[in-house]
Amino acid sequence: MGIFKNIFGKNKNNEALNHSSVPRHIAVIMDGNGRWAKKRGMPRSAGHAVGAETFRTIATYCKDIGVQYFTVYAFSTENWKRPEQEVNALMDLFRKYLTEAAETMFESGVAVRVIGDLSPLPEDIKKQIAEVDKIADKLGENAATASLCINYGGRDEIKNAVKKIAEKVKVGEINPEDITENTISKYLYTAKMPDPDLIIRPSGEIRTSNFLLWQSAYSEYYFTDVLWPDFKTSDMDDAINAFNLRNRRFGGV
Ligand code: IPE
Ligand code: IPE
Ligand code: MG
Prior knowledge:
This protein is of the alpha/beta class. The chain has eight helices and six strands, in the order αβααβαβαβααββα. A six-stranded parallel sheet has the order 3-4-2-1-5-6, with helices on both faces. The longest helix is centred in the middle third of the chain and has 25 residues, at 84-108. One 3-methylbut-3-enyl trihydrogen diphosphate is lined by residues 30-35, 75, 79, 90, 203.
């Protein structure tokens, strides 16, 4: 772990997690799959496959310890730049996990949601997402939520919200003077969720890469150089313990 732990987290390895104080909303930038595979002489797609397993493990763990919202960055608006083969491998993983979500959602009690601009996704995936959405609706508001951000970009999300609000202004449904920060939040993909309390980025990169730009105004960040496919429930404990040592002032004293 080295330097990152010293700078960003005062946590100690294997410190028992105080489950009574888990963040309500944890978000993760699932990064490092490619490097994980490269280190092993494997194709990048193999890293994505293991990263997807990690998602399943960590999402389940979060639900078990009482995290209400777990949101992961799975594919950014910029990730289309990658080789077609890699994009296709990622789409196949989304197919696999959406199938699994539809089959197991009632049993697991986790409502799976997909957020982002879904319009350019393959038609069959769009259908799967609609199906999963219907099941999630049936689980109701009190179920834990796991949100997959696919073709998600923070700037794109804000741009789309501005467009929708502008349309309403145009037809006289919204008065510009009545636009508040809350109005904007309501037009984002995350309208029904609280802002993330804790945002974790594994893999050693220290940037947001266009993730939850509006919603992260007062999120606590936790960076670790563990690659996402290697991320364990103990790494989640470390992140939560570090979070619990932070003093969130929200601009106050
Ligand atoms: C994150 O892992 C997953 C996606 C962006 C889809 P990367 O594929 O970015 O892995 P690295 O950063 O190249 O190691
Ligand atoms: C961010 O990771 C996007 C996801 C994890 C889905 P990237 O690997 O795409 O980000 P950069 O290119 O390192 O900023
Ligand atoms: Mg990356």
